[in-house]
Amino acid sequence: MATGSVERGRLAFGQRAWAAAFAELSGADRESPLDPEDLEHLATAAYLVGRPDTGAEVLARVHREFVRRGDRVRAARCAFWSAFHALQSGEAGRAGGWLARARRLLDEGRHDCVERGYLLYPVAMQAIFAGDTATACEVFGRAVEVGDRFGEPDLVALARVGQGRALIRRGEPTAGMALLDEAMIAVTGDEVSPIVAGDSYCTVIEGCQETFDLRRAQEWTAALAHWCDSQPDLVLYRGQCLVHRAEIMQLHGAWPDAADEAQRACERFRTGNRGTGPEHPGIGAAFYQRAEVARLRGEFAAAEELYQQANRAGREPQPGLALLRLAQGGTDAARVSIARCLGEAEDRVGRARLLPAHVEIMLVAGDVRAARTGADELALITADLDAPLLRAASAQATGAVLLGEGDARAALAPLRRGWSLWYELGAPYEAARSRVLLGLACRALGDEDGAAMEFDAAGSTFQQLGAAPDLARVESLARRRPEGSVSPLTARELDVLRLVATGMGNRAIAAELFLSEKTVARHLSNIFTKLDLPSRSAATAYAYEHHLV
User: Fold this and answer.
1) 213: which of 125, 177, 208, 280 fits an S-S bond (Cβ 3.0–4.6 Å)?
2) What are 196-207's pLDDT values in tens digits?
3) Separation of alpha carbons 500 and 479, rounded Å
């Protein structure tokens, strides 16, 4: 009976039917202890179907059996993979213990073997975490050489991906992405084990996100989705796949699908955890993605709870939470949060992710100088990385700052460039936000027809997306001067007058129109002079008397 189960388990493993492999091999092992080779298959299947505790126990058994047989090299390999999985689960102490045991086994036997190359991998990873990318690149390179010498594709793929990520963090994105692409040839060619394949997919997609390379991120996310779908029983890595898919869907405007994928990711991560230990770190990203969609839809209470869940799972809820506070009218809270977060971000990738929100919040807060500093820094980072996604964000930020500085004419070119880039990227929400800014620039220049068309186009997109807060704002901005009315005021002065009539102060008007408080004060002075009015209350009466409100 056990022999039949073993054979069925081996067959299922070869067919990547992980649940069947796990069930058959587990059953056979209960009847009669499996050989180490079959136990290794059982451990792999356990990890892949979301039973990490079982996988760890079985790997430890295999290790002990190889030690008993005097096979130090195989025992050391088991120790490495035990450490690898422990690191994936955030158990640094357990991982360190397994690695120390693996080194001792190899040192005692003075073995020259591929396992020596595997033990270089955690050394290089530690160097990356310490910020020593030069050492990381060198150690990963040595691991690749060992893997090539012994013909070990798993080691070569792991080390090459690691070296590519180290080069990206070192400021050499072109060379780094070339290594990632090369490693993925082995992964998509089915030359590596499923554990290495899944880890490589996720690591490479993270590398694409670090370089804001949307095209590659979409390509490898689609490949990861196909790989996961070909293994219906797979739990490990499927959650990460769903999060990556949700991020891309949100950018492309498929918000309901993005929310659904992020929800499924939460469920997958929890299925994989089974309540046996700390939650998978990826669940924080899934909660954050759900929060982002809720914020954009105007579901602020739900967004707040989801950001808190993301934070509890270890995912910094910024810049989304700061943008939520801004949408709720908490400008000061938003400014403090984004400034704190930006102050903690030391690497340029992390700063680039925060700077667009920083610029937006500082403009609303009336701190045009801080917004200008942020936009200039974003432009410098963009020049280094040269990614379309960053170019779009940088152009939009620069245009918004120029508008805030009162130079609407200069703002037109970067805003149109930003809109064009967002459109080419298939990012309708961001493209519509660029059109709102273009409408404000047109209005400041007296082109009311141009402003109306930009507002109308943006409003149509916001309505299709379900972006309720943005739709409400653009509808309030779209109010036009009554036909046939004659006024000595410019279009922008009329905007200021209308908002004065609603009781808004200079700071609030500056936030609404993306201007500095100084510019608003200048417009207000012009209004008083042109209309011969002595006060804000008189200006309010004039606005109602002439049907401007």
Assistant:
1) 208
2) 999 999 899 989
3) 15
